[in-house]
Amino acid sequence: MQSAANPALSESPPALYIHFPWCVKKCPYCDFNSHPISSQASKGRYLDALQEDLAASLASADPQLASVFCGGGTPSLFGPDVFATLLDEIKPWLAADAEITMEANPGTLEHQDLGDYRRAGINRLSLGAQSFNALHLDALGRIHSPGDIRTSFASARRGRFDNINLDIMYALPGQSPRQAEADLSQALELEPDHISWYQLTIEAKTEFAKRPPTLPNASDVAEMEARGLALLASRGYERYEVSAFARPDKQCLHNVNYWRFGDYLGAGAGAHGKLTQQGRIVRTRKATQPRLYMNDPLETIAEPVPADQVVVEFMLNALRLQQGVSFQEFFRRTGLDESAISPVWESLAEDGLVEHHRIATTPMGFAYIDGIIQRFLT
Ligand SMILES: C[S@@+](CC[C@H](N)C(=O)[O-])C[C@H]1O[C@@H](n2cnc3c(N)ncnc32)[C@H](O)[C@@H]1O
Ligand code: SF4
Description:
It is a single chain. This protein folds into 2 domains: 15-258, Aldolase class I (TIM Barrel, Alpha-Beta Barrel); 307-378. It has 14 helices and 14 strands. The chain has helices at 41-61, 80-90, 115-120, 134-139, 146-158, 177-189, 207-210, 218-234, 253-259, 290-295, 307-318, 327-334, 342-350, 369-377; strands spanning 15-20, 22-23, 35-36, 65-72, 94-104, 124-130, 164-170, 194-199, 238-241, 244-246, 265-267, 272-277, 280-285, 301-304. The protein has a 9-stranded mixed sheet with strand order 9-10-8-7-6-5-4-1-11, sandwiched between helices. Residues 29-30, 32, 72, 74, 103, 105, 128, 130, 167, 169, 198, 200-201, 203 line the site of S-adenosylmethionine (SAM).
């Protein structure tokens, strides 16, 4: 089923994602579009391609960007000058107080003054810490040590970053609940502004899928979650999304836009975008392989999202937010009306899984988001 064109449905995309597809080496659990970096030369070509891509998509969408997210891969393999060049290109479309995030791997920052990225215009840093236990970092195939996380965090604070996220994973191979809690405590000692706390998942086609490590059992994972959630709450980090915890006013604006089903542009190899065009919701993507992307950075595959899928995609995002969203926001973002969700929504509300007057789970439903989504599929 195609989505019905609704002329009232239009939006200027408030967000831009830029993908950097290389890493020093591929981690065995990672299914992101990242490739081991080969030669210096391709970085220059990649920057040229990004500039061409951005110039075309910004000119055509003419956005007012409230956020830019430079993700990967490992964007910090590129120097501050690259970000200064890109942000200069984007400048005419940037809101004055735009959130501009760069992901960084602590193992790539040892020779870098992080203040140089801040001066280039990046104002939020997301450090892939993952764990503070050297054995677990090794099991994850990471190139950094616990000391590298502390050094890069200190360098970022010295460089005037006042908005820093740490990515931490739990349920790691051989990890005990006490060790998972110790990872979070050590992260909290640094007083980050935001923590993304993910359960390690085994993704298809990764090294871990081919040679599965021994993971903690379900009762240990439940204990890790209970202890971790209590610890984060006790230190004033609000859980505003399934895996995202923030100090007051430090939620990630860019990710909140995704979860509210907002539009965004995507630039770079394999980057996805979501646009509302001529009353339709359209997903865009770029060639995944860096080589193919660099050969033709303007090539974009665009596919309208069918109406029955729009509801599921909206719920997959919005229900992850602790606060959810209003019904008005659902109507405004999707162009659909109550009839698209009402029978299922009412039965979920009767079961105590979702709120009656808002698109949000109840505290009980928050633990069963997958089951709730399933009800929209059947
Ligand atoms: C795209 S990675 C980018 C960060 C950077 N490349 C790094 O790893 O340091 C974003 C985050 O997703 C999380 N992640 C990646 N693969 C995961 C998996 N299989 N299970 C859970 N979390 C994962 C990690 O915490 C990682 O920092
Ligand atoms: S550094 Fe990050 S993006 Fe790169 S392979 Fe590892 S997890 Fe994936």
